[in-house]
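Need a sequence for this fold. Nothing fancy.
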C-alpha cells in the first residue's frame, strides 16, 4: 500500500500544479473577457474537441487500454508494451484526425447544434467567429489524444507527476494568449492559438519523459490481437462516455436558451468545482485504476478491497470539508478569484461584473452539493473498468442521464442556469448509488471504520462553526479558509487520525 500512497502523492502534486495554473488561466480569461456572449461561444468551441477527448483519451480509452498495458509488461516486458502502445497511438491518431477534419469542414453546422438560442443564431458575426475558433482549436484533439496515450504509459510505470504537471504548460500558453488578447483589442482568437501552442509543448515533454522510462517506437507487420480486444472492450465503454457527453451537450443546448452569459457562468463555476475534484478525486481514481489493474492481474481480491476501502476513507476525509468550503464561501471565492485578483495584480477593474459574481456563485453552490457523489462515481467506475467490466457503468450512467435531463428541464424553470448545475449534482447521486449497488465482492468496512468516520464528522462540524463565525466577523476569505484548514487538521491530529498512516 506504500506504493499507492507515494503514487497518489506524486499524482496529486502534478495535478495540483496543473490546477493552480488552470485556475490562473480561468482568472485571466474572466478578468480580460468577463462572462459574455463572446466567452459563451469560445467555451462551446473549446468544448467540441474536449467532447471527443473523453471518447479517445481520458474516459473510455484510458479505462480500456490501461489494464492491457499492465498485462503486456507483466507477460512480455517492455518490448511487448512498446509494440502495443505504438499501435494504439497510430490507430487513435488516425481516428481523431478523420474526426477533426470532418468537424472543421462542417464547423458552422456543428456550432449550431450547441447554440440553439435565438440570440446566438441571429448574430451572424458571433457564429462566424465561433466557426473560426473551431478551425483553430480542433487540432487540439489530435495532440491531446497522443498526450493521453503516453500519459497512460507513464502512469502504468508509476510516473504520475509529469503526466499531470505537464498540462501546466498548456495553461501557461492560454494565459499568454489572454495576455496577448488584452493588448490586442481583446481579440479572443489569441486565446485559441494559446490552446494549440500549449498542447504542442505538453506533447514534447510527455513524449521525452516516456522515452526516458523506456518507450521506444516499435513496429510490426502483424497487428497485436490485444489492440483489437481493446477496441472491442471500448465499445460498451464508449456508450458510457456517450451518455456522459450527451449530458454535457444537452446541458449546453438548454443553457443556450437562457440569458447570454449563462454558459460562461456555468463554466467558471464548474472550473472552481473541478479544482478539488481534479486535484484529489480524479487523481485518486487514476491511481486506483492503476493499482486495481495490477491487483486484478495478480488475482488478489484482498488487496483490491483494501484499495477501495482506503479510497473511500480518503474521499470522506478530504471531499467533505471541500464541499463545505465551496458552498459556504462560494460568493467570496468567486469575488476573490475574478475581481480582487485583478485589482491587486493589474490595478484595473475586472471585466467580471458583480452580476456575474452572484450568478456564478449560485451555480457553484449547486455543483458543490454533489461533489462527494461525483467523486464516488468516478472511483467506482474505475473499479469496474479495472476488472474489464464496462457494461455496468454504462447502465448506471444511462439512468443517471435520464435523471439529469428530466431534472434539468424542471429545475431550469425555477433556477435558470443554476437549475442545470443542480440537476447534474443530483444525477451524480443516482449514478454513484447505482454503481455501489452493483459492485461485487465488496462491502465498505463500516464496522472497523465507524470510529474514524465519527471523528471526521466531528472535525467537519467544528470547521463549519469556524467558517460561519469568520463570515459573521467579516474576516477576509483567504484568512477564513486558512483558519478552517488549520482547525480541521488540528482536530484530526488531536483525535489521533494520521492520514498517511491511515492510508498506508
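Here you go.
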Amino acid at each position: 500500500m506504500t506504493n499507492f500512497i507515494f503514487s497518489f502523492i506524486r499524482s496529486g502534486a502534478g495535478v495540483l500544479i496543473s490546477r493552480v495554473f488552470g485556475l490562473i488561466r480561468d482568472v485571466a480569461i474572466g478578468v480580460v473577457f468577463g462572462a459574455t456572449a463572446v466567452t459563451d461561444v469560445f467555451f462551446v468551441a473549446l468544448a467540441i474537441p474536449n467532447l471527443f477527448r473523453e471518447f479517445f483519451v481520458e474516459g473510455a480509452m484510458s479505462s480500456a487500454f490501461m489494464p492491457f498495458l499492465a498485462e503486456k509488461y507483466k507477460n512480455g516486458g517492455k518490448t511487448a508494451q512498446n509494440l502495443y502502445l505504438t499501435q494504439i497511438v497510430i490507430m487513435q491518431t488516425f481516428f481523431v484526425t478523420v474526426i477533426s477534419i470532418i468537424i472543421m469542414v462542417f464547423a458552422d453546422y456543428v456550432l449550431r447544434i450547441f447554440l440553439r438560442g435565438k440570440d446566438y443564431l441571429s448574430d451572424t458575426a458571433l457564429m462566424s467567429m465561433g466557426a473560426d475558433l473551431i478551425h483553430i482549436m480542433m487540432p487540439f484533439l489530435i495532440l491531446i489524444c497522443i498526450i493521453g496515450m503516453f500519459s497512460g504509459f507513464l502512469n502504468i510505470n508509476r510516473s504520475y507527476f509529469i503526466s499531470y504537471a505537464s498540462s501546466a504548460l498548456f495553461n501557461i500558453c492560454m494565459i499568454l494568449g489572454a495576455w496577448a488578447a488584452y493588448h490586442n483589442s481583446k481579440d479572443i482568437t489569441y486565446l485559441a492559438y494559446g490552446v494549440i501552442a500549449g498542447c504542442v509543448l505538453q506533447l514534447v515533454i510527455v513524449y521525452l519523459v516516456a522515452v526516458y522510462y523506456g518507450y521506444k517506437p516499435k513496429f510490426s507487420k502483424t497487428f497485436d490481437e490485444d489492440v483489437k480486444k481493446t477496441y472491442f472492450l471500448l465499445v460498451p465503454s464508449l456508450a458510457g462516455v456517450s451518455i456522459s457527453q450527451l449530458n454535457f451537450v444537452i446541458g449546453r443546448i438548454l443553457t443556450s436558451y437562457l440569458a447570454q452569459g449563462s454558459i460562461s457562468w456555468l463554466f467558471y463555476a464548474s472550473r472552481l468545482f473541478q479544482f478539488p475534484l481534479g486535484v484529489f478525486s480524479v487523481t485518486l481514481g487514476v491511481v486506483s485504476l492503476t493499482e486495481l489493474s495490477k491487483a486484478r492481474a495478480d488475482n488478489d481480491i484482498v488487496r483490491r478491497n483494501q484499495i477501495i476501502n482506503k479510497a473511500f476513507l480518503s474521499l470522506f476525509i478530504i471531499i467533505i470539508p471541500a464541499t463545505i468550503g465551496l458552498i459556504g464561501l462560494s460568493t467570496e471565492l468567486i469575488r476573490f478569484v475574478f475581481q480582487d485578483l485583478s485589482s491587486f495584480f493589474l490595478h484595473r477593474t475586472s471585466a467580471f461584473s458583480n452580476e456575474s459574481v452572484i450568478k456564478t456563485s449560485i451555480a457553484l453552490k449547486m455543483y458543490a452539493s454533489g461533489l462527494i457523489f461525483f467523486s464516488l462515481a468516478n472511483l467506482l467506475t474505475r473499479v469496474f473498468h479495472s476488472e474489464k467490466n464496462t457494461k455496468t457503468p454504462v447502465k448506471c450512467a444511462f439512468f443517471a442521464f435520464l435523471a439529469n435531463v428530466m431534472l434539468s428541464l424542471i429545475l431550469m424553470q425555477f433556477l435558470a442556469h443554476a437549475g442545470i448545475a443542480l440537476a447534474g449534482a443530483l444525477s451524480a447521486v443516482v449514478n454513484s448509488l447505482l454503481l455501489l449497488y452493483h459492485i461485487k465482492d465488496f462491502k465498505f468496512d463500516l464496522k472497523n471504520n465507524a470510529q474514524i468516520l465519527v471523528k471526521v464528522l466531528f472535525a467537519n462540524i467544528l470547521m463549519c462553526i469556524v467558517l460561519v463565525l469568520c463570515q459573521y466577523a467579516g474576516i477576509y476569505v483567504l484568512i477564513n479558509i486558512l483558519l478552517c484548514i488549520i482547525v480541521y487538521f488540528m482536530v484530526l491530529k488531536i483525535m489521533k487520525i494520521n492520514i498517511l498512516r491511515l492510508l498506508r
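For context: The chain has a mean pLDDT of 85.
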